[in-house]
Design brief:
The structure holds two protein chains of two kinds. Chain A is mainly alpha-helical. Chain A has a domain of 195 residues: MetI-like fold, CATH 1.10.3720.10. Chain A has 14 helices and no strands. In chain A, helix 1 packs antiparallel against helix 13, helix 5 runs antiparallel to helix 10 and helix 10 packs antiparallel against helix 13. Chain B is α/β, with parallel strands linked by helices. Chain B has a domain of 188 residues: P-loop containing nucleotide triphosphate hydrolases (Rossmann fold, 3-Layer(aba) Sandwich). In chain B, 38% of the residues lie in helices and 25% in strands. Chain B has a six-stranded mixed sheet with strand order 6-7-8-3-9-10, sandwiched between helices. Chain B has a four-stranded antiparallel sheet with strand order 2-1-4-5. In chain B, helix 7 packs parallel to helix 8. The chains are: A mainly alpha, B alpha/beta. Chains A and B meet through helix 5, helix 9, helix 10 and helix 14 of A and strand 4, helix 3 and helix 4 of B.
Chain lengths: 329, 272
């Protein structure tokens, strides 16, 4: 089997997974308890008769058996028709798409900031940790040990602070005291994106530093590093060409999880900064029991996670020849 | 016990190229090699034998600064061309490693990154020691591989380490150590992970290196048959101490220490 066929077979495997997820989420909404039509009129503040409610149910197809409702909904969704919001009455798909750029911008910026900060710091910590245990000179050993401990301490602090606390600190310092940035978002602009990005990046960087340090430290103990040193290869070359390459699968796994959750919107951060993204939309929809919107959100999340995992699997094939040759066989 | 003087006689008065003087090595404060002295002469093959954990590999790794985490030379000197190797800065050691002192590992396949092609890694090593054109490198390494009785060199250079058998990987390890024509070759149990056929191939290739390239060799092994086949002098290690050192024939035919006698007698079918 060649790599192209392997890709195709993996894509085909995604179809039943996606259908399964949509079915489960649809079923869970059905058993959630409350009646969507009652909620819709209740949210609108209208007192209506049982006949009106029945008519509304018939109009929305909610009087049909569950399995029929599911396939009608699935068929509509495949053509981009996710229904109308119970609250605003607007098209769910269009509403959803209008919020996506904000979430995408925040995701790209925070992931980029996290990689730029955590990879060098994780590498620095790992190399320092290794040298603190192997340098012949005691002064050098102490210096390397201090560097490693400082980076680990910063990572520990970053890990210990919840997102909302970091957000409030940044607001207080950068917006209120220094007046450099707007306190809350004034639209989807780079200026407004700085603080939400920093909030997300600080937590992720702290987590990633530990992971990069651990992965790189593991690799530094491998025989191929000793082999390269015995052949007189520079440390910088060993790190960039061999160690980082071998650590990439760990980083990719982490990134896939982070990108998945970020694309799903970060409800707390988006709400604090009034960043008009998918996360805030989901929170609002849940609060108002806007089922079509919630359903669209669940499908979006499923597509994100399945899609990101698929891309990650494909990247494993690209970066690791053992996986690639296995796929070819 | 054979002495350093008798060992020197075996080297026919050749110059010392690597000298260990009263070397102690510790891992995390625990001494694993204690007060070991010996000398390697130009063109000589020195065998180091002893049971597992006796400090044989640690001894040669110390010369290249490859002791790893927690490992330190805590006393003594390792002299190479007027340089005390444990005190040589990392950058200078990098220039010596590979080009002047090279190593063959117990599992040479593990000494190459699994996610990169063998040819790329060997070329990278050559580049680190000077400007070598890729075509020139390919020509030189192909010639060396052919000399080491490899055929289909292009396929081997384009392979990943895990695509080759253990024996092939070990022979690639020998080629990678020899590609810069080092003055000293340190072989860390190069045959112990191989089947008997592959062991024979590796021993034959070590002989080629010794006879054709006249490289000074230290071979660490617990296979006394291999040591007898290749080495001119023999150092016997036990629990981090050198218990016997002298010309291989003298040590094997007339062992002085009880441990050496026991080691020799434990080799099934060894001919005196």
């Amino acid at each position: 089997m060649n790599v192209r066929k392997y890709f195709a077979s993996r894509m085909i495997q995604l179809v039943p997974i996606l259908i399964g997820i949509t079915f489960l989420s649809f079923a869970m909404m059905q058993v959630a308890g409350s009646d969507a039509v009652t909620e819709m009129y209740s949210n609108a503040g209208a007192a209506v008769s049982e006949e009106t409610l029945d008519a509304a149910r018939a109009r929305l197809g909610l009087d049909k058996p569950f399995i029929v409702q599911y396939f009608v909904w699935l068929g509509n969704m495949m053509t981009g028709d996710m229904g109308k919001s119970f609250i605003s009455g607007r098209d769910v798909f269009q509403t959803f798409m209008s919020k996506l750029p904000a979430t995408l911008l925040l995701t790209v910026m925070s992931v980029a900031a996290t990689i730029v900060l955590s990879v060098p710091l994780g590498l620095l910590a790992a190399v320092s940790a290794e040298r603190s245990a192997s340098e012949q000179d005691s002064t050098h050993r102490t210096i390397y040990s201090v560097i490693d401990n400082v980076v680990r301490f910063l990572s520990f602090i970053g890990n210990s602070m919840p997102n909302f606390f970091v957000a409030l600190l940044l607001m207080n310092f950068l917006a209120i005291k220094l007046g450099l940035l707007p306190v809350i978002s004034s639209g989807v602009t780079l200026e407004s994106a700085v603080m939400p990005t920093m909030t997300l990046a600080i937590a992720m960087t702290a987590k990633y530093i530990r992971q990069v340090r651990g992965a790189v430290l593991d690799e530094l103990g491998q025989g191929y590093v000793t082999g390269a040193r015995a052949r007189g290869v520079r440390e910088s070359v060993i790190l960039t060409k061999s160690v980082l390459r071998s650590s990439l699968s760990t980083l990719l796994t982490l990134l896939a999880l982070s990108i998945g959750s970020l694309l799903g919107g970060t409800a707390i951060v988006e709400s604090i900064f009034m960043w008009d993204g998918v996360g805030k939309l989901a929170v609002d929809a849940i609060t108002m029991r806007d089922y079509p919107m919630i359903q669209a959100y669940v499908v979006w999340m499923a597509i994100i996670y399945v899609g990101v995992n698929f891309v990650t699997d494909m990247l494993y094939v690209v970066i690791d020849p053992r996986v690639r040759l296995g796929a070819e066989k | 016990m054979a002495t350093i003087e008798t060992a020197e006689k075996s080297a026919n008065g050749a110059n010392e190229i690597l000298t260990y003087e009263s070397v102690d090595i510790s891992y995390d404060g625990l001494k694993v090699v204690s007060d070991v002295s010996f000398a390697l002469h130009e063109g000589e093959c020195l065998g180091i034998v002893g049971e597992s954990g006796s400090g044989k590999s640690t001894l040669i790794r110390a010369a290249m600064g490859l002791l790893g985490a927690g490992g330190l030379v805590t006393r003594g000197d390792i002299w190479y061309r007027g340089l005390d190797l444990p005190d040589v800065p990392r950058d200078e050691m990098r220039r010596i490693n590979g080009e002047e002192i090279a190593m063959i590992f117990q599992d040479a396949g593990n000494a190459l990154c699994p996610s990169r092609k063998i040819g790329d890694q060997l070329y990278e090593s050559m580049l680190e020691h000077g400007n070598a054109e890729r075509a020139e490198f390919t020509e030189n390494i192909s010639r060396l591989l052919e000399r080491l009785r490899f055929d289909d060199t292009d396929r081997i250079l384009g392979s990943y380490p895990f695509e080759l058998s253990g024996g092939m990987r070990q022979r690639i390890g020998i080629a990678s150590a020899m590609m810069m024509n080092p003055k000293i070759l340190l072989a860390d149990e190069p045959t112990s992970a191989l089947d008997v056929v592959a062991q024979k191939d590796v021993v034959e290739e070590m002989k080629i290196i010794k006879d054709v390239y006249h490289t000074s060799i230290i071979i660490v092994t617990h296979n006394i048959g291999v040591a007898r086949e290749l080495s001119d002098t023999l150092l016997v290690m036990k629990d981090g101490h050198a218990v016997e050192y002298g010309p291989t024939n003298d040590v094997l035919t007339n062992p002085q220490s009880d441990y050496t006698k026991k080691l020799i007698s434990s080799v099934i079918g060894l001919k005196r």
